[in-house]
Amino acid sequence: METPSQSTLALLGVAALSIALYSNTQRKKRDQLPPSLPQQFFLGNMKDFPSKGEMWVEHRDIAQKLDSDWVNFNMMGNNMLVLNSYQAANELLDKRGAVYSGRPRLVMLNELIGWDWNLSLMDAEKPHFVSYRRVLSQQFQPSAVAESYHPLIRPEVVVMLKNILDRPEDFRQLIKHMTSSLILMIVYGHRTSPNEDRFVKIMEDARDDSIVASEKYSFVDFFPFLKHLPEWLPGAGFKKLKFAREARSVSTAARREPYLTVKERLVAGTAKSCMMTTLLDDDSLKTSGLDREELIMDCTSALYGAGVDTTSVSLSTFVLCMLKNPEVQRRAQKELDSVTGGTRLPEYADRPNLPYIESILKESLRWLPVAPLGVPHRVFKDDTYRDKLIPKNTTVFANIWAMMYDPEVYASPKLFMPERFIANAGKGAEPDPKRAVFGFGRRVCPGMHLADATMWLSVAMVLATFDILAPTDGSVERPVEVTSTFTAAPPEFKCVFKPRSEAAMKLVRMEV
Ligand code: HEM
Questions:
Q1: For the segment 288-337, what is each residue's pLDDT rounded down to a tens digit?
Q2: What is the pLDDT of residues 457-508, one digit of tens each?
Q3: Is 214 helix (H, G, I), strand (E, B) or coil?
Q4: Residue 315 neighbours by CB under 8 Å, 6+ apart
Q5: Does domain 99-371+405-511 have CATH number 1.10.630.10?
Q6: Residue having the nearest C-alpha atom to atom 24 of ligand 1
Q7: Among 126, 133, 137, 438, which residue has the most ligand 1 atoms within 8 Å of its CB, making it the best to mutate?
Q8: Paired strand residues for 70
Q9: Fewest CB within 10 A of the end CB: N or C in the chain?
Q10: Domain boundaries in the chain?
Q11: Residue nearest (by alpha carbon) to ligand 1 atom 18
């Protein structure tokens, strides 16, 4: 056998030393970071990061396995940090909001499709971010919601009740119709047509594209160079770029068309007073150097996508929970009747006197949070917490679902128990889930007061007028499923809406 030459031995020695040094540096780096699973060479934790199905449950399980409420994932050099407790999310995303309010780079959605005008996806380092947030915070502050939007919510909810009476089997579609009509009325003063509505169509098309982009093409975010592949290239390059080009024109339509229509209606004298006309009339609007019309167009067009499904899915969850918990319905109806006498429908002024209805709303939001992993934040600069390093550009997920199912915070979390939010002699109320389900810090949901008002009135009105019953075919026994995207929804389920009384239905018909 030939013996290796001295130079070969030297080369092997250098290689072994380099590998040892590299591993040592990597280990030291890893020790500085929050707890993580063991990592593979080059891939890091790519294979461990749950990204399909009920990924929030898997994330919670990994945290439990590591006995840590925060877990770092090395995704081929990019850090992803998952916060599984309210305490960690509050410390970092709320209290250090100035550092944790970015959004990760979204190559497909923002750079290829051109959704970068959309506040939900916009990085907070973008120069006009603050102006966008300011406009929406003003438009949706509690006093504006009460004064301007309460009068619009009620008619939409009453129409929904009337429609459910006529077509109970379509209840889910009718809930969604209510939330979409409401947002389009608030934002554009647009009354949706019962048949195919142009505004709804373009907004839904844009929403569908954004789902396809995040589910099918998110790999482009990991390998940004792919965006430069020419469209004629056979294979994925072609498909992805063709999709992006078509989706870009849909996104542009969703942004511009409703705006232009409202402007035409203003000229024709047929525009209804709405958020857009208010903004167009507002001479004191602070634009921070941005084109005024662009600012108004961008702020308003972000709202359909952010507000319609979130609110309607949360209301469908409420219906499912009522179906599974008839005794909760009975207690709620007793409370409602004691306040309205059963002779009128509930109104916002009744809210302080209906603590159990309030608790049902909170428990529905907790039981199946619609955005279980929130919307990811990005860290602007290196930060330290619990003596660990959170490097600049780390993507941070708040596992809202894990927070809602933390048995240390919510007793028997799988059970639907509205009474957990009512303090009694023996124990205090459990924390309001709204502190987490609407997100955190400088990115907290600006539409939360509108969502809260819409849901509260819907819950109170539905319970005042209907008994929600299980269908005879027993389909309610199916387990809850969730969608595989970043949002969770209850599965398709059937139920029976039985009018509580003829008098209640008369009250509904009188208001339509
Ligand atoms: C039950 C209903 C809703 C829930 C649970 C919900 C939840 C959320 C969550 C978790 C976020 C991400 C916050 C973060 O990044 O930390 C968010 C963002 C947002 N929501 Fe909502 N939302 C709801 C309804 C609405 C409504 C009705 C509107 C407006 C009409 C709205 C507008 C927005 C906007 C514009 C953003 C992006 C804010 C930003 O990125 O700075 N949402 N929402």
A1: 788 899 999 999 999 999 999 999 999 999 999 999 999 999 999 999 99
A2: 999 999 999 999 988 765 555 555 555 457 888 888 889 999 999 999 999 9
A3: helix
A4: 175, 179, 364, 455, 458, 459
A5: yes
A6: 307
A7: 438
A8: 83
A9: N
A10: 99-371+405-511
A11: 445
